[in-house]
Amino acid sequence: MSTCEQFESLTPASKVLVIDGHSMAFRAFYALPVESFVNGEGQHTNAVHGFTSMLLTMIRQHEPTHVVVAFDLSGPTFRSEEYAEYKGGRAKTPEEFSGQIGLIQRVLDALNIAWITVEGFEADDIIATVATQGEAQGADVVVVSGDRDAFQLITEKVSVLYPKKGISDIPPMTAADIEAKYGVRPERYRDLAALVGETADNLPGVPKVGPKTAAKWIAEFGSVEGIIEHADEIKGKAGENLRAALDDVKRNYRLNGLTRDMTLPTTIDEMRRAEPDFDAVDELFDELEFKTLRERVRTGLAPREEAVVLEAPAAVVVRSAEDLAALVGEEGTPVALTLDEDPRLGEVLSLATETSRGTVVLSRLDEPTTTAVADVLRERAADILATDVKGLTRRLEALGYALPEGPRDLGLEAFVLRPGAKGYTPELLVADLTDQDPGDKPKKPTAAALKKESAEEAEANAAPSLERLSRIAWLLHPVAAELTGRLDEHAWAAGIVNTLEVPLSRVLLQMERTGIAVDLQRLDELEADFSARVEDAKARAGAIVGETVNLSSPKQLQEVLFEKLALPKTRKIASGYTTDAESLSELMTKLEPESSEFEFMGRLLQYREFTKLGQFVTLLKESVTAASRVHTTYAQTAAATGRLSSTGPNLQNIPVRTAEGRLLRSVFVADPAFEGLMTADYSQIEMRIMAHLSGDEALIEAFRSGEDLHNFVGSQVFDVEPAEVTPAMRSKVKAMSYGLAYGLSSFGLSKQLKISVDEARRLMKSYFDRFGGVRDYLRGVVEQAKKDGYTTTIGGRRRYLPDLTSSNRQVRENAERIALNSPIQGTAADIIKKAMLDVQARIESEGLESRMLLQVHDELVVEVAAGEREAVERILREEMGRAAELSVPLDVNVGFGRDWNEAAH
């Protein structure tokens, strides 16, 4: 069988993962402690465990269609037959490694993953053959190897993952990386290695010649052959050494070249991913005493179907009402819709049914076609498939088109099913939920290039962009089908989409349209005040050190703080010593309060605070409309926990922990036609959720009795009466109570409270001794998440956390912290969303003119119409108070005033 015939079933949609088995096994052996991996028969298994874990990670990250592992044999190869000292001098293999390669091969057999050895050749040659022939068939190939010889394989279609530390740090090496590090392109790495030599293979190079010199010669003479041909022209000692070592260079070049045309004993179809033999896996893992890997195999190695490239219908550009009617078909036909901005043509509406697709350049339409587009959007809303329907509606409104309620929001559905994804745009949904390629994004033209284009040239040059946009819209149909299947399978997700997220998007749209009024005079006053305070802080800081200092310049600050004032050094960074806020706040604690150094630091922090406040004022002024209102945008899919975020401007970023920061809220006012603003928020909602989830009787009783929570907890932890809890005690238990829900360690608590680690540890022990239910819950929630692969809120919202089983400790511990806080934060997010829906429903059912304006974290802001204050307060207290059934009451605080700050409580 010829080599090409072995690979003839590959396609451009194929991806081949080929692994250097011995290289990865040794990497795993030295990365994991030998003494921790020994089964009952005394067999060491650390290399087996690490190799299998890495293999599962590689498959999860790269989703290959084909996988093969290449191993060396112990016998001679054509290289050792030519050069007996080849690979001589390598350290003796540790005894504990004995037998582990055979076990790895048994694991691969159970996983139905192909592995190859070929007598007389090395694993590198097998890899090179697979990579070369895979690329020739148009497939992508991912090589995993710790051997630098693999660098010569790198092309646009072949990438190399080169392990650096342990088994989790495996960065990709690109052609640019090779050129940056070695000064040559990958195809010339073989030439460089021939000149420099390879210690690991016992191949001596030219004495005193390193990569820089070798790369310079290659750049000058093109290749090893060119260098040998012109060896007499190379001057100096390096030239002498080269001429004396020419035989070594020629031999190195022969031996380090990888064989790319072997006839392999395994066909490409035998490399195709297949379902593991789970019975064999269970039997072998029982023998090896592996526990955590078993579930990873079951969830991570389902066979992947090779992609079938869907043939899209021909794209059209809509130029008339008749074109549009032919494109969208009859009423009831699903129509995918996207709205994008092309740099040449402006706003482009892409429309696609399952059998047609096209684009509408909105700026080029005549009046009848514009009317036809408006009619389709208005009359066919229930047929439309889109993403971010709320944002799409507002963008269309700005262009003069109305989009009523009814479109299906694929982005919201995908978010609920897969929170924390890179994004939920049409293009990203196509990439994540289908095997289809939307095509490369055309390069954005420069402003200068656009000026030179004629109208005809612009239209011709925009054609690839329109083709791609309409294809993405057309591919939303398979996206929708995939999401339908997943929602049918996961009733919990369908419930959240239909009863919470979609209805909420309509409420948020109404809030965004309404916006909130701004007192422009007050805004100007604050701008002047903050600017004056910035200048005052700058002047006073300069007076202290006797020179004008640019307090925004880290370089000047470093000179003043650590040279002129000789303050204790902060954390070392590349440019010197850090001047970040946390480090400077900590530095202040080391200074005498009456000293000039302390005063300088105070002025510096004052400068930073008022600069930040001034920047927010500027941002607000840019956001105010002609009607003196600000219209923030709420993102439902930005936070994986389900919490809403705010942009343009971000009203959640208003600093409220200082009196000066709270002044910013005073610029947000009630419309003159309304009586005032009412705010309502939950008191200690996250701790109430913690009490409910943990079932801790002491904590539940504290909330039911109406006692001050932190005083109660402080009395328990410090063993004093509640009245004897000091402000310092209260501050400590408050920080600890909230911190524990976010995975705060004793070290983190010590840093936050500026106490010793031992004291923090004692504090946490005392807390857990009194509140054992909280301790048990926090332990159990992470363990359950590891078993399930996800966390769950009270309302059933899931957050999947595959990194809980990561071999990288930092990654795993971060996932554990997320597992701790997601049920609490996610439940809090669900509760406020439910409350918003119920409050809005009551306002409408009672026929009130008051309107909900803002949601910030756990707070709602309502603009109260004249005579409706009492009714609105009743609605807020009742609906927010019963938004969830917990074992503790939901306490709602309410305030009222003419502006947002005055309405605080």
UniProtKB/TrEMBL annotation:
Protein name: DNA polymerase I
SUPFAM superfamilies per UniProt: 5' to 3' exonuclease, C-terminal subdomain (SSF47807), DNA/RNA polymerases (SSF56672), PIN domain-like (SSF88723)
Residue ranges of domain 5'-3' exonuclease in the record: 14-274
Family: Belongs to the DNA polymerase type-A family.
Role, per record: In addition to polymerase activity, this DNA polymerase exhibits 5'-3' exonuclease activity.
Annotated segments matching region Disordered: 433-462
Keywords: DNA damage, DNA repair, DNA replication, DNA-binding, DNA-directed DNA polymerase, Exonuclease, Hydrolase, Nuclease, Nucleotidyltransferase, Transferase
Enzyme Commission number(s): 2.7.7.7
Substrates-to-products reaction catalysed: DNA(n) + a 2'-deoxyribonucleoside 5'-triphosphate = DNA(n+1) + diphosphate
Alphabetical list of CDD domains matching this protein: DNA_pol_A_pol_I_C, H3TH_53EXO, PIN_53EXO
DNA-directed DNA polymerase family A palm domain residues: 661-868
Any Gene Ontology biological process: DNA-templated DNA replication
GO terms of molecular function: 5'-3' exonuclease activity; DNA binding; DNA-directed DNA polymerase activity
Organism, scientific name: Falsarthrobacter nasiphocae
Gene field: polA
